[in-house]
């Protein structure tokens, strides 16, 4: 059995059963879920800061941390923890904060490790700032450095980059991933940001209402959520109720409103089953001319009317009426080329593999 | 002016304060952070010496320190000198009597330290004692100052207990509080007034410096 | 002698604490003899009472442990000479606990013995019994020898406690204390020769602002009466100097 | 057992505690939140009554409250009864003497309240007084408890000041501390012991309840 | 002169001069800038929580709040402030927190306003949760409700939605904008999120290093940053140094590496001037066939080689080598259709208006 962090944790809303492999080559597990779903509670139980209800069990690399009659004290778990609200020591300098966990190291080595951790966290320039004066984002970076400095056995990061501006955030997440890979520190990181999840994570755990709904590769989870709640959590723009019509050769034909749509998959479904069809907005291409030629996979074409167009970050969000409401993301380029304005008739092209079916109870 | 008595009082107050900070910090930490229910009883017991009139407390201490008590005998045999009517006996009595003034403010301050910082310290591998030393104490500076000030001032002014246990021996147990009292009893109001004034001024200087030191970089009201 | 009508109600008496043991009996007999009159006794040090009376304390009678304090009050215009009355004189004893190395039967000179470690006397600076003890020690020629053994009690009762608790080997105290049940049970005493120290005359005064002057005078009268004197003698006091009465 | 004295002491201690909380809260708030430098001097002055031996402080208070002083006369004329040797005088003296025990812990606690909450309150339109009442005080429960406990216990046991200002008048100013002292002075050790025990037990109950109340939902050490 | 919030504030790093119009129809000003640029400091000075250095001046709708010799106390400014770290009153209930600023209202009305504010902030279900137990995102919503409840004259929101998951965030920002429009409360909101800035803001102020670098409409600032620092702050993916070659008829021809690129604009530039060309990644379209037909504006075509492709949220980030490095965003659709893999030769098509020039010192 490969090394793993096994956690079966019940506490308050939380009722989660989790097995995170500890592999140095793919160290990062993203914990994703709506506000209040129990992410912080889970991390705290793993760190030993909260004592989960009886029957819970936390096991790290074969040794029990929390088990009936056992509770390894937090300080012996040797985890790194970035608190959602930072919890910096206000009376210590930035360097004092970062070096706090480095007892046992020689003074020189300690200073080196502090400097290294600070620069890893993009906070080298903050070394001499009084801790009480740090801005929100600055404090977050110092907290990250503090968690990294002792090179813990396990890193638990509760929204480590949420207070940062996007250039800094982008830079840090690349660097953070590189460091984690280099040191091979298994890490569980809470984030609300899809880009961050993609950039940082080797796998993702979706926690909704205290329960684990899915654990898989990040891309997979975002495009093929396992449950309706997971789909909502990863913010799938189009979740359309429908019914299975036919199943054949790994393809399913589903009735969504008045359209028959082809999806890849459909294992375990039988005709007549109610389903939810999940389609990411960026997987809906809009066309005005006839259907394109070199399609590698079966494509669905749904005639639709544009009802609204609005910028959404780097993309344009296009609301469509195709009998069922649809949302598509297109580039500004495409918007201009296709002259997308409300009322315009378009064809929404959706590849069959982009339609993901979830059984509906 | 009885300078000898003043010097003795200052020595007693400083020693009492030092001992009570050393003893008080772990006790207060234990009281502040223990989850056990019955710690409230210990908390209350710490405050109990206050409830007895000082002379009566002094009387009981006198009995406890005397040659007829095990404590007194043990000390006598150990050191060759009795506890009662000596500086050491006075010190012991002052420590007992001022215990609540040190422990209570420390405890209040300790309990007020942000829990998340204690958690952060535990995560970073520190023991409870290490956390108290490195996080709780530095963040409790106002409480430490209060504990020190109350202990110091109270010991300077302490009279009943000291009188009972000390026996008013010049240079050994005759503190300035007793000296002033004696002056008042002898209707030497001018002398009493003079000594009181010196004592008050000296204490004012000590207290102001303590507070000023403690305040540095301290919190202040946001301009509303 | 005063009219019975004036003696109704409460008499507030400030009593020097060395009189405490006798006072209970005195109050009991006085109240028996004067139905309708009750005595409320406050005990304390004579010096403190003078300070309190100077500042308006509502006492009717003040029974001091010496003669000086009442005279001070007269001098300060807070009492009339005619209202001062002597009621007793104190007697000095050497007291030691049963298990003490000191032998009280040897009197003051025996206190110079090397076996005696600590001797408690009242503070001679302001306690009359302390002044008397100091004088007696000098008369006995041992004042210098035992100077280093001395511990000072704030008042005579505290002085006794030093010895009684075993912390002082001996104490020079009032006979009235040595006769108390607790002290007579736990130790021995011998009287210091009366001539070797100035008389410990104790006088009282009826205060001019008394709310119950009748009752106050009755009490003063009772103290000097035969019955009163008998009680005081029983508790270790000598009769007052004759002619002291104003 | 001198129940009258016990009742008097409890009454005095409760009244003193109540008054000191009412007076101490604004004073402590002002000291904790003022930005003026010289508040440290006021802070120190508040602690000064401690430095004098209680009987001496009592003596000065007696002179200040007696019928020869303007204050005493003014009060007499106003109310028809003197201040010294009455319960009211005792109360006043106790309040002065216990002031530091109330103000110091309150101040420490107040100063420890998270500044951001004070700012939040100001933004939401509250005055300083409103903020103290609604935010600072509720968050300073441990400090309030400490202030109350120290004041209460200290007043119960207070002896020198009370003796001097009160004059040991049964039913009016004879507190249980003085009663016990009298018993000890009269070598009635059994009676003194019994009264002390009752006093200690009663105080224990009061203190334990105060602490238990205050602890409810209070902070606790994170299991490390 | 129209109603405005005028702030000339100097304090620590901050040296900002700002004029925010107070118009009920376009109430929201976004404050954007890197971590540590002074955003919080600016809000605090406006709220009166910090006292700026002398010479500073804050004026609201004609009445001076901070001026030489004047300092209107915070409590009389009647602003709503959402603190970056929430600063909820731990001893009060959620309802107590939200109702805290509603003194002077009748009990009934107060309860109504609390309920209304809570539901505006998506926190109606938290009404009875003990405040100490709120999760990070829950606390943020309660803090938002608390700031909204008294209907302040001016709202200052310091990263109001940063701790929320994206579905909740998306929902809240739409609702928040609707409320602000309905009540017409002028609002300054700090955010690090471009989507949020677009969805919430009527205008945006870019603060870098304590100075205001630009203030304009959100779309304009993101596509046409005024300074190099502003470009970095709004995270323009391509900022390429070059030189102006020709200027004619509102068009500029600029040499970027070995390519001559046409840009719209160029006022104030003369040939030879060093410039930075800013191009948003989503404005670079990739083509494999010949250039498309119906271009509405002059188009640049740069031959390039794909060097990397990686998912970036809903988009695919394509790193290109076109002599100069370029980054383009394309949809998954486009990636599949164009068979974008490293090494592939493509043409990067960039419309002239998408090339924005900034003079380079
Ligand atoms: N002591 C408690 N008792 C009951 N419920 C609690 C307690 N502490 C927290 N909760 C609730 O448990 C839920 C999970 O909280 P948690 O902090 O783990 O959420 P989270 O997933 O970290 O959310 P966020 O993303 O907002 O930080 C929340 O709804 C919270 O209100
Ligand atoms: N009292 C102070 N003295 C000196 N510098 C300070 C002080 N307080 C804050 N600073 C510095 O001022 C800068 C601006 O801080 P501010 O909190 O305004 O940043 P911010 O823009 O809100 O950043 P963030 O997005 O990270 O919250 C920071 O670099 C901070 O370290
Ligand atoms: O009764 Mo005295 O005057 O204290 O010895
Ligand atoms: Mg959380
Ligand atoms: Mg900030």
From TrEMBL, chains A, E:
<keyword id="KW-1278">Translocase</keyword>
<keyword id="KW-0067">ATP-binding</keyword>
<feature type="domain" description="Mop">
    <location>
        <begin position="295"/>
        <end position="359"/>
    </location>
</feature>
<dbReference type="InterPro" id="IPR027417">
    <property type="entry name" value="P-loop_NTPase"/>
</dbReference>
<dbReference type="InterPro" id="IPR008995">
    <property type="entry name" value="Mo/tungstate-bd_C_term_dom"/>
</dbReference>
<dbReference type="InterPro" id="IPR005116">
    <property type="entry name" value="Transp-assoc_OB_typ1"/>
</dbReference>
<dbReference type="InterPro" id="IPR004606">
    <property type="entry name" value="Mop_domain"/>
</dbReference>
<keyword id="KW-0500">Molybdenum</keyword>
<dbReference type="GO" id="GO:0015689">
    <property type="term" value="P:molybdate ion transport"/>
</dbReference>
<dbReference type="InterPro" id="IPR050334">
    <property type="entry name" value="Molybdenum_import_ModC"/>
</dbReference>
<dbReference type="InterPro" id="IPR003439">
    <property type="entry name" value="ABC_transporter-like_ATP-bd"/>
</dbReference>
<dbReference type="GO" id="GO:0005524">
    <property type="term" value="F:ATP binding"/>
</dbReference>
<keyword id="KW-0813">Transport</keyword>
<dbReference type="InterPro" id="IPR017871">
    <property type="entry name" value="ABC_transporter-like_CS"/>
</dbReference>
<dbReference type="Pfam" id="PF03459">
    <property type="entry name" value="TOBE"/>
</dbReference>
<feature type="domain" description="ABC transporter">
    <location>
        <begin position="1"/>
        <end position="234"/>
    </location>
</feature>
<dbReference type="GO" id="GO:0016887">
    <property type="term" value="F:ATP hydrolysis activity"/>
</dbReference>
<keyword id="KW-0547">Nucleotide-binding</keyword>
<dbReference type="InterPro" id="IPR003593">
    <property type="entry name" value="AAA+_ATPase"/>
</dbReference>
<dbReference type="Pfam" id="PF00005">
    <property type="entry name" value="ABC_tran"/>
</dbReference>
<protein>
    <submittedName>
        <fullName>Molybdate transport system ATP-binding protein</fullName>
    </submittedName>
</protein>
<keyword id="KW-0472">Membrane</keyword>
UniProtKB/TrEMBL annotation, chains B, D:
<keyword id="KW-1003">Cell membrane</keyword>
<feature type="transmembrane region" description="Helical">
    <location>
        <begin position="83"/>
        <end position="103"/>
    </location>
</feature>
<dbReference type="InterPro" id="IPR011867">
    <property type="entry name" value="ModB_ABC"/>
</dbReference>
<feature type="transmembrane region" description="Helical">
    <location>
        <begin position="40"/>
        <end position="63"/>
    </location>
</feature>
<dbReference type="GO" id="GO:0015098">
    <property type="term" value="F:molybdate ion transmembrane transporter activity"/>
</dbReference>
<feature type="transmembrane region" description="Helical">
    <location>
        <begin position="12"/>
        <end position="33"/>
    </location>
</feature>
<feature type="transmembrane region" description="Helical">
    <location>
        <begin position="197"/>
        <end position="214"/>
    </location>
</feature>
<comment type="similarity">
    <text>Belongs to the binding-protein-dependent transport system permease family. CysTW subfamily.</text>
</comment>
<dbReference type="GO" id="GO:0005886">
    <property type="term" value="C:plasma membrane"/>
</dbReference>
<keyword id="KW-0813">Transport</keyword>
<dbReference type="InterPro" id="IPR035906">
    <property type="entry name" value="MetI-like_sf"/>
</dbReference>
<keyword id="KW-1133">Transmembrane helix</keyword>
<protein>
    <recommendedName>
        <fullName>Molybdenum transport system permease</fullName>
    </recommendedName>
</protein>
<keyword id="KW-0812">Transmembrane</keyword>
<keyword id="KW-0500">Molybdenum</keyword>
<comment type="function">
    <text>Part of the binding-protein-dependent transport system for molybdenum; probably responsible for the translocation of the substrate across the membrane.</text>
</comment>
<keyword id="KW-0472">Membrane</keyword>
<feature type="domain" description="ABC transmembrane type-1">
    <location>
        <begin position="6"/>
        <end position="210"/>
    </location>
</feature>
<dbReference type="Pfam" id="PF00528">
    <property type="entry name" value="BPD_transp_1"/>
</dbReference>
<dbReference type="InterPro" id="IPR000515">
    <property type="entry name" value="MetI-like"/>
</dbReference>
């Amino acid at each position: 059995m490969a090394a793993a962090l096994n956690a079966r944790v019940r506490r308050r809303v939380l009722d989660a059963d989790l097995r995170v492999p500890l592999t140095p080559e793919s160290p990062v597990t993203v914990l994703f879920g709506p506000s209040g779903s129990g992410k912080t509670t889970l991390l705290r139980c793993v760190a030993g800061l909260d004592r989960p209800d009886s029957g819970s069990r936390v096991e790290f690399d074969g040794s029990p941390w929390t088990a009936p009659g056992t509770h390894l004290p937090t300080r012996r778990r040797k985890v790194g923890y970035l608190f959602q609200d930072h919890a910096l020591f206000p009376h210590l300098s930035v360097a004092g904060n970062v070096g706090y966990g480095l007892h046992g190291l020689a003074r020189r080595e300690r200073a080196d490790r502090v400097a290294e951790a600070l620069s890893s966290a993009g906070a080298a320039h903050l070394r001499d700032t009084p801790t009480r004066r740090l801005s929100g984002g600055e404090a977050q970076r110092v907290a990250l450095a503090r968690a990294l400095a002792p090179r813990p056995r396990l890193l638990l990061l509760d929204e480590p980059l949420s207070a940062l501006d996007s250039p800094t955030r982008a830079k840090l997440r690349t660097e953070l991933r590189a460091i984690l890979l280099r040191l091979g520190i298994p890490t569980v990181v809470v984030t609300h940001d899809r880009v961050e999840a993609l950039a940082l994570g080797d796998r993702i755990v979706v926690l909704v209402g205290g329960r684990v709904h899915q654990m898989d590769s990040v891309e997979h989870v975002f495009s093929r959520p396992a449950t309706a709640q997971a789909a909502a959590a990863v913010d799938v723009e189009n979740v359309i109720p429908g019914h299975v019509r036919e199943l054949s050769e790994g393809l399913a034909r589903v009735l969504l409103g008045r359209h028959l749509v082809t999806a890849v998959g459909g294992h375990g479904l039988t005709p007549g089953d109610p389903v939810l069809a999940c389609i990411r907005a960026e997987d809906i291409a809009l066309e005005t001319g006839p259907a394109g030629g070199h399609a590698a996979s079966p494509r669905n074409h749904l005639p639709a009317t544009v009802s609204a167009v609005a910028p959404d970050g780097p993309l344009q969000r296009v609301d469509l009426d195709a009998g069922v409401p649809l949302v598509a993301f297109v580039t500004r380029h495409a918007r201009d080329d296709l002259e997308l304005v409300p009322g315009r008739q378009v064809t929404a092209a959706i590849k069959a593999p982009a339609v993901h079916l979830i059984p509906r109870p | 002016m009885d300078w000898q008595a003043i010097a003795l009082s200052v020595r007693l107050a400083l020693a009492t304060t030092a001992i009570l900070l050393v003893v008080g910090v772990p006790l207060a930490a234990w009281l502040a952070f223990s989850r056990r229910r019955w710690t409230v009883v210990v908390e209350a017991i710490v405050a109990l010496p206050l409830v007895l009139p000082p002379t009566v407390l002094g009387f009981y201490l006198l009995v406890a320190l005397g040659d007829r008590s095990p404590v007194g005998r043990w000390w006598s045999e150990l050191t060759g000198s009795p506890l009662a009517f000596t500086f050491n006996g006075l010190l012991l009595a002052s420590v007992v009597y001022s215990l609540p003034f040190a422990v209570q403010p420390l405890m209040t301050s300790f309990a007020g330290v942000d829990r998340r910082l204690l958690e952060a310290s535990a995560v970073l591998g520190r023991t409870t004692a290490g956390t108290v030393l490195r996080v709780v104490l530095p963040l409790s500076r106002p409480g430490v100052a209060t504990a020190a000030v109350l202990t110091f001032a109270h010991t300077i002014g302490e009279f009943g207990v000291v009188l009972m246990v000390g026996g008013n021996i010049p240079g050994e147990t005759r503190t300035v509080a007793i000296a002033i009292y004696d002056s008042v009893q002898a209707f030497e109001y001018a002398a009493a007034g003079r000594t009181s004034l010196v004592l008050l001024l000296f204490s004012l200087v000590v207290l102001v410096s303590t507070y000023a030191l403690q305040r540095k970089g301290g919190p202040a009201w946001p301009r509303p | 002698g005063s009219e019975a009508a004036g003696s109704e109600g409460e008499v507030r008496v400030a009593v020097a604490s060395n009189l405490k043991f006798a006072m209970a009996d005195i109050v009991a007999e006085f109240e028996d003899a004067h139905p309708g009159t009750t005595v409320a006794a406050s005990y304390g040090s004579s010096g403190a009472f003078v300070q309190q009376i100077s500042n308006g304390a509502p006492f009717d009678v003040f029974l001091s442990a010496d003669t000086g304090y009442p005279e001070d009050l007269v001098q300060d215009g807070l009492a009339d000479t005619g209202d001062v009355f002597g009621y007793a004189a104190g007697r000095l004893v050497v007291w030691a606990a049963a298990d003490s190395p000191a032998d009280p039967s040897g009197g003051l000179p025996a206190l110079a013995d090397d076996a005696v470690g600590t001797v408690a006397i009242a503070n001679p600076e302001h306690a009359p019994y302390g002044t008397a003890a100091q004088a007696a020690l000098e008369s006995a020629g041992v004042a210098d020898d035992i100077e280093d053994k001395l511990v000072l009690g704030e008042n005579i009762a505290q002085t006794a406690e030093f010895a009684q608790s075993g912390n002082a080997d001996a104490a020079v105290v009032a006979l009235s204390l040595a006769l108390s049940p607790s002290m007579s049970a736990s130790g021995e005493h011998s009287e210091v020769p009366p001539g070797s120290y100035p008389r410990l005359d104790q006088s009282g005064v009826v205060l001019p602002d008394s709310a119950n002057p009748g009752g106050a005078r009755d009490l003063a009268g009772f103290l000097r009466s035969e019955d009163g004197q008998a009680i005081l003698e029983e508790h270790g006091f000598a009769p007052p100097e004759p002619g002291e009465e104003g």
